[in-house]
């Protein structure tokens, strides 16, 4: 069977979460890695026995891979995706799909026009806890969701932003604690609710950082067409990274969810608990708060390319949470609710 030829753009921190699943697949060949920082690209190429590039356009044009992974700063996600999609290359991109909603929307249409798959990483949907909650909601055992909430209290000091040439900026990161950290938990809640959002009303501020432009504190309310109200709070001024907590209040019970655990309590007295199972892959310098479910999403994406079907988490699916994120920033800037 012909192996899928894969290339990765960006050899920074998140690179390990992509390269490790790729090189451990039996049906894949890593044909190239790229980074504008030559030393990064050279180290990655030497380690994984592939070719180093310093210009992703040249890499795509020369190699014409089947799949390209995009692990770049946020503002470059849609730009690199567009280049690959126009050349008929399947794209798997780190979140967010784009800083600008309209650009992401155009790229979704571009992928359809060129008959290629376009996915965006939201690996936390594959956590055992997330899967249990979604399955239980779909079964009807919990009834309808009445309301939801999420809370994120993490630690990102000024040094975190000082060590990066793009984080903490509006033009390159597109925001702060919401678009970078809380987007995963917000995506999970939006996925659980499974209804069209109709309004976002939010506030944000920078309360604890001196050297960045974007928000480190945020709160708001999303209301949905099905009547659900979702309240969220996020900040990265805490002293450590506490587990994210999601709560769902449903017709027939309640849910408490972290990335590693889920507790479901039914009104009839039943209780269910699940804890995250171990992953057998070793990610060099991988960070716990990323989770370790990239391998599951990458596996589905590669199978979707071979089976000529849409991936489970397509870019069109990623647009759903991006619409809310963009509305959040608009509402926070104007101080008014945003209709969707």
- CA-atom Rg in angstroms: 20 Å
| Average of the residue pLDDT scores | 96
**Low-pLDDT runs:** none
Structural class: alpha/beta
Oligomer: single chain
Q: What spatial form do the alpha-carbon principal axes imply? A: globular
Q: What distance lies between the first and last C-alpha atoms, to the nearest angstrom?
A: 46 Å
Helices, by number, come to 10
Helix and strand run: EHEHEHEHEHEHEHHEEEEEEEHHE
Largest sheet: 9 strands, mixed
Total strands: 15
Helix content: 25-40%
Strand order of the largest sheet: 14-13-12-11-7-10-9-8-15
Beta strand % = 15-25%
Describe the structure in your own words:
It is built from ten helices and 15 strands. It is 35% helix and 25% strand. It is an alpha/beta fold and 340 residues long. α2 (38-48) links the parallel β2 and β3. The protein has helices at 15-23, 38-48, 56-63, 77-86, 101-114, 128-139, 158-162, 177-193, 294-307, 315-334, and strands spanning 4-9, 28-34, 51-53, 67-70, 90-93, 118-120, 145-153, 197-205, 217-224, 229-235, 245-250, 253-257, 261-266, 271-275, 338-339. The strands form two sheets. The chain has a nine-stranded mixed beta sheet. A six-stranded parallel beta sheet has the order 3-2-1-4-5-6, sandwiched between helices.
Write out key terms for the chains shown.
10 helices; globular; 340 residues; 15 strands; six-stranded parallel sheet; alpha/beta
Q: What would you say about this model in short?
A:
The protein is α/β, with parallel strands linked by helices and 340 residues long. The protein is 35% helix and 25% strand.
């Amino acid at each position: 069977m012909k192996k899928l030829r894969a290339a990765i753009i960006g050899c920074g921190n998140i690179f390990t979460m992509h390269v490790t699943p790729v090189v451990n697949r039996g049906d894949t060949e890593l044909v190239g890695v790229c980074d504008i920082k030559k030393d990064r690209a050279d180290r990655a190429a030497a380690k994984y026995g592939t070719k180093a590039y310093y210009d992703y356009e040249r890499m795509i044009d020369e190699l014409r891979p089947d799949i390209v992974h995009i692990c770049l700063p946020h503002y470059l996600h849609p730009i690199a995706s567009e280049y690959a999609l126009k050349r008929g290359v399947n794209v798997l991109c780190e979140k967010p799909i784009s800083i600008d909603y309209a650009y992401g929307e155009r790229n979704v249409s571009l992928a359809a026009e060129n008959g290629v798959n376009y996915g965006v990483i939201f690996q936390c949907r594959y956590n055992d806890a997330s899967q249990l909650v979604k399955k239980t909601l779909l079964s009807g055992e919990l009834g309808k969701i009445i309301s939801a909430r999420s809370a994120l209290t993490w630690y990102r000091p000024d040094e975190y932003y000082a060590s990066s040439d793009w984080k903490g900026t509006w033009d390159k990161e597109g925001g702060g604690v919401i678009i970078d950290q809380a987007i995963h938990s917000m995506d999970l809640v939006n996925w659980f609710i499974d209804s069209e959002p109709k309004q976002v009303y939010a506030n944000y501020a920078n309360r604890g950082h001196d050297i960045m432009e974007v928000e480190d504190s945020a709160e708001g309310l999303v209301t949905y067409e099905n009547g659900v109200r979702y309240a969220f709070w996020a900040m990265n001024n805490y002293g450590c990274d506490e587990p994210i907590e999601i709560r769902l209040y449903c017709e027939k019970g309640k849910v408490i969810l972290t990335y590693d655990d889920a507790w479901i309590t039914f009104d009839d007295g039943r209780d269910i608990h699940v804890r995250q199972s171990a992953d057998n892959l070793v990610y060099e310098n991988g960070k716990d708060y990323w989770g370790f479910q990239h391998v599951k999403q990458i596996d589905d994406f590669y199978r979707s390319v071979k089976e000529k079907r849409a991936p489970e988490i397509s870019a069109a699916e990623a647009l759903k949470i991006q619409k809310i994120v963009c509305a959040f920033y608009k509402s926070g800037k104007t101080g008014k609710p945003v209709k969707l």
